[in-house]
Amino acid sequence: MSALDGLEVRRTTTAQQLADGLSERIMAGAFGPGDRLRESAIAAELGVARNTIREAVRILELTGLVRYEVNRGAVVIAPTPEKIEALYTARERLETAAVIRAPRPEQLEAITRAFDEIAEAAAEGDTGRIVDRDLAFHQAIVALLDSTRLDEFFTAMTKELRFYLTVLSKSETPEEVVAQHRVILDAIRLGDHDRAVAEIRAHIDVSVEQLKQLLRR
Amino acid sequence: MSALDGLEVRRTTTAQQLADGLSERIMAGAFGPGDRLRESAIAAELGVARNTIREAVRILELTGLVRYEVNRGAVVIAPTPEKIEALYTARERLETAAVIRAPRPEQLEAITRAFDEIAEAAAEGDTGRIVDRDLAFHQAIVALLDSTRLDEFFTAMTKELRFYLTVLSKSETPEEVVAQHRVILDAIRLGDHDRAVAEIRAHIDVSVEQLKQLLRR
DNA sequence: ATGAGGAAAACTGTAGTACAGTTCAACTGT
DNA sequence: ACAGTTGAACTGTACTACAGTTTTCCTCAT
Predict the structure, then answer these.
(1) What 3-state class would DSSP assign to A76?
(2) Does the keyword Transcription apply (chains A, B) (predicted)?
(3) Distance measured from the CA of protein residue A56 to the C1' of nucleotide D13, in angstroms
(4) Which residues from chain A sit within 8 angstroms of residue B150, using beta carbons?
(5) Residues near chain D (nucleic strand), Cβ < 7 A?
(6) Among partner residues B62, B70, B145, which is closest to A61 by beta-carbon distance?
């Protein structure tokens, strides 16, 4: 334990900090889907130069939360049925590929722990936290693939997912969420790959349908 | 066939064009792995402003060919054994997940065609083209997953892969490449999933080993 | 020669100004 | 109600400037 422990210099750029901050705001719903991020306004409000904002937004683009349109600048991604479908299809492929692998003990433990945290958040009824833990549970499943690249890819998708789930209000009861995840967990623990795959498919189908439903208004 | 077919206005920005151009140069080996992209030099040489280059490089970052380091700017990614391993592991997971699905006729045809093109390029002995078609073959396999998001993800990885394969010179004969892909194709056509998985694993193991070997110098 | 130290040069990160070309919204006359 | 016009608001890009970091290069003691 050094006397300098915890001391750390700024090791990050303004643009990076702005990107992080904006990312947070967007996910919190400060900008609605389809909204444009106006550079001068943001720059003026935060007291930074416009090119710095521009760079921050380019960094944001990495996470997939905004995309650039020529002469219109950065636009917050807007969910469409096709996009949601594409996102969930990718999830389905990854997660089903993951659960047919034999989990190592610590992986199994991580998934179990993730489930417990969902249950805990559900008991408290904190919807925001339920979403977070829900995503963490699925992240733990993808981790079964033992591929850092795929983990990263899933993390990126997670940002979009959380965004959708946050912007569109939720329509499931916490109990339903817990129940759905419990059957997945059970199947994994039992080593019943076929059932795990089936449960994941069912879970994802339900989610897609709910999201589409919410979107239709 | 409209009379206006093919007509298209510029619909792209300078930064985007620069990003494309730089990407090409990097993959062609104009910049070695680990090299820094010096903004002022590039800006001066191409007659554009430095902030435009900066933006172009941020776009480049999207494809994973460069990454930013604080106060050092953009650096061309350098292959390390760990990175190569991570890349190929992700490939392996995707491709094996793909071949256990039953291919639709047009997907099978696409893969077959991709193989034929490998054979064709091999006959000509054009190593650059062999690499391209090799990657296209694997892209066709990943397409079996029917997920545009995963296709895109694989495409991004492909850029890195091609880069490695281009920078590091090749050490396989064209015949070996063709033979390796033929067994994969055969297994897929026969619907023998287990063998297809095994062949893909073998193929990827060989590639990783060769790359690491080349890297050790 | 060689390695340590330190000064200078080269660059990045950021700010700020400017302006042409585009998009968008409000206004106008029909 | 509506097509057309106009002007304001913005984006894309260029240029200049400068503080803070790296990198390079030179010097000096060993």
Answers:
(1) strand
(2) yes
(3) 17
(4) 90, 93-94
(5) A 36-41, 50-51, 54, 68-73; B 13-15, 47-52, 55, 70-72
(6) B62
Is B61's Cβ below 8 Å from some Cβ in A? yes
Q: In whole angstroms, give the CA distance from residue A75 to residue A69.
A: 7
Per-residue pLDDT of chain A (217 residues; tens, 9 = 90+): 444 444 445 578 999 999 999 999 998 888 988 999 999 999 999 999 999 999 999 999 999 999 999 999 999 998 888 999 999 999 999 999 999 999 999 999 999 999 999 999 999 988 889 889 999 999 999 999 999 999 999 999 998 888 877 766 567 788 889 999 999 999 999 999 999 999 999 999 998 988 888 888 6
CB contact under 8 A, A149 and B90: yes
Contacts of A93 in chain B (CB under 8 A): 97, 145, 147, 150
Measure in Å the smallest separation between the Cα of A150 and chain B Cα atoms. 6
Domains of chain A listed by start with CATH number: 14-76 (1.10.10.10), 81-216 (1.20.120.530)
DSSP state string for chain B: --TTTT-----S-HHHHHHHHHHHHHHTTSS-TT-EE-HHHHHHHHT--HHHHHHHHHHHHHHTSEEEETTTEEEE----HHHHHHHHHHHHHHHHHHHTSPPPHHHHHHHHHHHHHHHHHHHHT-HHHHHHHHHHHHHHHHGGG--HHHHHHHHHHHHHHHHHHHHSPP-S-HHHHHHHHHHHHHHHHHT-HHHHHHHHHHHHHHHHHHHHHHHT-
CB-based contact A114:A137 (threshold 8 Å): yes
Residue of B180, B83, B8, B57 lying closest to A15 (CA atoms) = B57
Record the pTM: 0.90
Question: Which bases on strand C have an atom closer than 7 Å to a protein beta carbon?
Answer: 10-18, 21-24
Sign of CA dihedral B43, B79, B142, A75: negative
For chain B, first and last CA: distance in Å?
A: 55
